[in-house]
Design brief:
single chain; 5-stranded mixed β-sheet; 17 strands
Length: 626
Amino acid sequence: MNIEIKRADWLLFLVMLVPIGLSIWFGLSQIDVIHRRQAAATVQTVLAVTREGLVTWERNTESTARAWAGEVSVRRAVLGQLKFRRDGGALHESPYLGELRRLLRDIVQQKHYQGFDLIATDGIEIASDLGDAVATNTLSRLDPDTVTAALRGATVTGVPFLVRDKNLDVDVPTMLVAAPVRDEEGTIVAALIFRIDPGGDFSRITQSGRVGETGETYAFDHHARLVTESRFDPLLRDIGLLAAGEHSSHVIDLRDPGGDMVRGFRSAVPRSEQPLTKMATSAVGGKSGIDVDGYRDYRGVEVIGAWVWDPELELGIATEVDKAEAYAALTATRKVVLRTFLVGLGITLALTLRLQQREKALFRIADRERELRNELEERVDRLQEVEGELKSAVHAREEFLRFASHELRTPLTSLRLLYEYMLRAGAAGPTPAMSPTEVHRFLKVSTRELFRMTQVINNMCVLSSVAAGNPVLNLERVELEELVRNVVRKMQPEVAAEGCIVEVESEGPVYGHWDRAHLEQVFVNLLSNAARFGARRPITISIGRASGFAFVAVRDRGVGMTAEDRERIFQPFQRRQDAHAGLGAGLFVSRAIVDAHKGTISVTSEKGEGTTFRVELPLPPGSDDG
């Protein structure tokens, strides 16, 4: 009999183990898919933002060059320089050369350009801030495409290249922006060129697109050679790809060494004969792409990334991050799940082995149960003494859960319906049937509903902290106007959905030491309340300072409220009589946060004349004068 029982226990154990294992495998597979989608979205977003930044920078730079090429005084000096040259004068001795240097000196210094040059239609430099460049064709020879395009009437930005610095006796990177200079009849007579350091704004834009500790965004030319600085220059020197003192720009080719050089791998194939990386091969071929499965970069490190070849910039742009870092959370999740499964398996096995021993303890448990029953009866008698307090607490909890579940269910229902509609739209074939307008509306509504959920959850968190005492504040130096405008920007979709607009009036910057996150929650609650009862009319937020405190007043021109409402709206789970939604906790939470800052919050309102909430926060001593 005992043997049969043991066999049944082991069979039950194995039957339970199979579905648990399948469930874990399926869950890990879903987590893997989600992480890959998030990684793809991250690198694509960084790449798109960086590309847009570079295009904007290029357009602004070309606009500057075009404006100075059309400047009357510059054109007059250029025509004089050309006439002086035709009359047989030496260009270095021309008075117009000094005039051009004086006219262009300020813009060169203001924009941190390397200098300027003026090139005649025959390719000879008739003026330059560099004395030894005048009467030469150096730039026409080094970057003929940019110079030729400008002399044909286009304003263009060239790709970076190296030029010899005679003073330092080294090659330094530079790039040109060129615009045509025309005479009175509109004929092109010269090209105005500004020399730009690629290591300046051009590189800083790409360097701003870095993801995590190992991510980088960089640009490269059609030879698959870096034209911006790598974030790994010290490491590249350590592994032998750069010499001491060298920089990666125009030195590092995007080639696959065949292994991780950071971990000590060294290829027997010379660097010049190594193949281009997967990303570089695709990009210089004019293709854009993304790879979240992993490929080796120019260090041989396995990365994920996205890339694009931009014909307007005539450059490739890539955003990459080490695969190990990109999927660190996924790896950790897998380890935790597997360890938990193994621990649970071991515990279950131990419990199964001890199951037989528990039979002998049943009698002792029965005796102990009688003792516990007597103790329980005594405790029930004591609990009856506090029954009244418990009933009120239970009632408050039920009210909280009822309101919270309603407020969370509304955005969740909207999101579920949106996602079901999106799934049905994509079920007809491999290509989604949703139009860009529908996708935009989907994202807009999703963002608004998620924001509503976040607002409710934040209020719930503060309610919990109030129940345990005062909210814990993380004080830092905060500028009140910037904080309020940030809230207005975040709340814009919700306010617009209520048909309102927000006007911010400020007397100037107001600084204080407050908890930024908690104050944002206060103004989110007040602005949400104003939009909901604002009757589709403008909302005004006033920011200023008074004697010893800063104030923010949120005024709507909506339905207003009764005196009865004004007396109870700051109590927990109390809503206005005409409220059709809301947790009834926003104003209670706001008052708790303001009280924790040693401030005050008040309301003035008349039925049908709108409502104004005023928050006053103490300022540090001596800050009244700003």
